[in-house]
C-alpha cells in the first residue's frame, strides 16, 4: 500500500505548475522518452523587457524550426542556441523577449522560452492563444532525429496534462498561419502532418 501511495505522489508531481511564477516540476519523465524541462535560469536567459499573460489552456500549438542556429547536440550548445535566438529577437527584432514559448533541442531536453500562458511572438493572431513550440535546427531537407520528435510529442501531451494546452488542441505548422514563411521546413512539416491533432484547415481566428 505504501508503495502505491508513493507512486501516485511521484506522478502527480510531474505536472506541478505554479502559474504565478511559472515553475515546473523537472525533470519530467513521461511517455517513452526522458527529458528535462530547463527553465530560463538554466540557459541564462535575459529578463524580458515586458511580459503579458493570458488565462486558460491554449487552444493551439504551432510548430517552428529555427533554421539558424542549426542543430545543437550538447546541453551547453543548446543553452548557447537559446541565448543566440533570444539575442536576435530582442536586439535585432526589438521584441521584448525570445519569441517562442518552448523549444526542443538536440540534447533531448525541453527549454523554456516565454513559458506557458505568456503572450509570445511567433505567429500573429495566435500569440495570445497558443504555445509556440520550436525545434532547434534546419529541417528543410532532413528530419530532426527521432529522439527529438518523441520528446516533442511527449511535451505536447505534458502540456495537456498540465492544463496549459487544451485537450482538444489544434496543431499547425507555422507556414499554415503565416504567409511568406516555409517554417517549419519541408521535412518537418511533412512529419507533423501525421501527428495527433494536426489540422489542414485553418480556423478563422476571428470567430474563435
Ligand atoms: Zn516559424
Number of strands: 10
Nearest-integer average pLDDT:
87
Distance N to C terminus: 47 Å
Net shape: globular
Assign the CATH superfamily.
Answer: Peptidoglycan recognition protein-like
Question: Low-confidence runs (pLDDT<50, min 5 residues)?
Answer: 1-23, 25-29
Descriptive terms for the model:
single chain; alpha/beta; Lysozyme-like; six-stranded mixed β-sheet; 5 helices; 10 strands; binds zinc ion
Can you tell me about this structure?
The chain has 208 residues and is an alpha/beta fold. It has helices at 2-14, 75-92, 146-161, 174-177, 186-192; strands at 17-18, 23-24, 28-29, 34-35, 37-38, 58-65, 102-104, 110-112, 130-135, 165-173. The chain has one domain: 3-Layer(aba) Sandwich (Lysozyme-like), CATH 3.40.80. Strands 5-8-7-9-6-10 form a six-stranded mixed sheet. It has a two-stranded antiparallel sheet with strand order 1-2. A two-stranded antiparallel sheet has the order 3-4. It is globular. Mean pLDDT is 87; it is low at 1-23 and 25-29. The site of zinc ion has 4 residues, from loops.
Task: Summarize the topology.
Layout: H1 2-14, E1 17-18, E2 23-24, E3 28-29, E4 34-35, E5 37-38, E6 58-65, H2 75-92, E7 102-104, E8 110-112, E9 130-135, H3 146-161, E10 165-173, H4 174-177, H5 186-192
Parallel strand pairs: 5-8, 6-9, 6-10, 7-9
Antiparallel strand pairs: 1-2, 3-4, 7-8
Brief account:
With 208 residues, the chain is α/β, with parallel strands linked by helices.
Amino acid at each position: 500500500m505504501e508503495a502505491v501511495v508513493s507512486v501516485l505522489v511521484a506522478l502527480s508531481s510531474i505536472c506541478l505548475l505554479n502559474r504565478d511564477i511559472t515553475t515546473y516540476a523537472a525533470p519530467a519523465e513521461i511517455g517513452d522518452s526522458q527529458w528535462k524541462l530547463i527553465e530560463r535560469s538554466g540557459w541564462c536567459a535575459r529578463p524580458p523587457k515586458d511580459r503579458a499573460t493570458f488565462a486558460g489552456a491554449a487552444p493551439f500549438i504551432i510548430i517552428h524550426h529555427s533554421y539558424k542556429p542549426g542543430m545543437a547536440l550538447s546541453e551547453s550548445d543548446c543553452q548557447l542556441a537559446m541565448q543566440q535566438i533570444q539575442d536576435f529577437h530582442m536586439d535585432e527584432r526589438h521584441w521584448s523577449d525570445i519569441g517562442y514559448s518552448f523549444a526542443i533541442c538536440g540534447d533531448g531536453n525541453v527549454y523554456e522560452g516565454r513559458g506557458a500562458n505568456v503572450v509570445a511572438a511567433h505567429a500573429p493572431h495566435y500569440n495570445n492563444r497558443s504555445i509556440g513550440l520550436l525545434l532547434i535546427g534546419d529541417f528543410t531537407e532532413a528530419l530532426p532525429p527521432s529522439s527529438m520528435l518523441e520528446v516533442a510529442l511527449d511535451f505536447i501531451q505534458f502540456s495537456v496534462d498540465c492544463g496549459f494546452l487544451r485537450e482538444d488542441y489544434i496543431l499547425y505548422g507555422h507556414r499554415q498561419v503565416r504567409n511568406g514563411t516555409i517554417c517549419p521546413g519541408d521535412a518537418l512539416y511533412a512529419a507533423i502532418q501525421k501527428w495527433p491533432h494536426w489540422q489542414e484547415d485553418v480556423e478563422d481566428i476571428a470567430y474563435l
